[in-house]
Amino acid sequence: MPDGGAQVLERGDVFFFYRPRVEQHTPRGEDDVQRFLVVLAPDGRRVLRVVYVGRKRMPDVGARGRERNWGWVARVARDAADVELELRGYRYATKTRGEREQPSARPAGEGVYVIARHGDHTHLAYALARPAEPGPVQRELGIEAAASYVVAVKNPWHPAPPPANAGLAPEAEASYPPDVQARFRDRRWGELEPAHLDREGAELLLVGADEDPERELGIHLDPRERRGGPDVFRALGIDPARHPSAPLFTGEWA
Question: CB count, 10 Å around CB of 34?
């Protein structure tokens, strides 16, 4: 197997974002966050996946690990402009409060990731390129300098109780091609494969594992070795004037 003990299924760039609550233009902590999401841009493919993560943070890893969190694939796009629209702020009218504003999402981290099969389970692991050192934003959102998570995928044909206050409506769940569906083998949960992430409505269970993917999986992750490095502004067409970038460079709230 390449990269040591784990079989690498996919590599790419990863971008973390948070969206402030409605009318909250100066967020100062997790209580001011409405959504937390991750964008995966795999190498060699023209596809972008937007994954929303519950509890507005990544699960704890390392000594505090084994925390579980639910997520789902909200958008699969071929064009970066479609993802930027998903992240952009907007105004809307209400009957009781007049016009309200939903602020745009803020980039909170960028780096490289791998999806790797390790024994009978699959990991999603990453290493940050920015910020250089995690700050207050990253600490509250559970974004480590590097981390690894065991990820399972819910079988849409086999009802399974999701975590408390989580889970998509049946009509919103993913529909997989027959060959991908067959690999669940009638189990409630399956090991993550890149093909799952290509379907909107894929439901994921993330379990915090380790904060040192290289030691745990034998996989080398170094954003500095990628030509040009991950760049959320180039990859997604993000305008810093519309998506404040202080959290990405300084780790401070904006």
Answer: 15
User: 246: which residues sit within 8 A by CB, 6+ positions away?
Assistant: 106, 252, 253, 254
Phi, psi of 109 (to 5 degrees): 170, 150
DSSP 52-94: EEGGGSPPP-GGG---EEEEEEEEEESSHHHHHHHHS-EEEEE
Q: What type of residue sits at position 113? A: Y
Q: Are 47 and 16 contacting, i.e. CB atoms less than 8 angstroms apart?
A: no
The phi and psi torsions of 27 (rounded to 5 degrees) equal -60, 145
**14 in Cβ contact with 129 (< 8 Å):** no
pLDDT at 63: 78
As beta bridge partners, residue 110 has: 15, 130
Question: Does residue 1 register a pLDDT over 50?
Answer: no
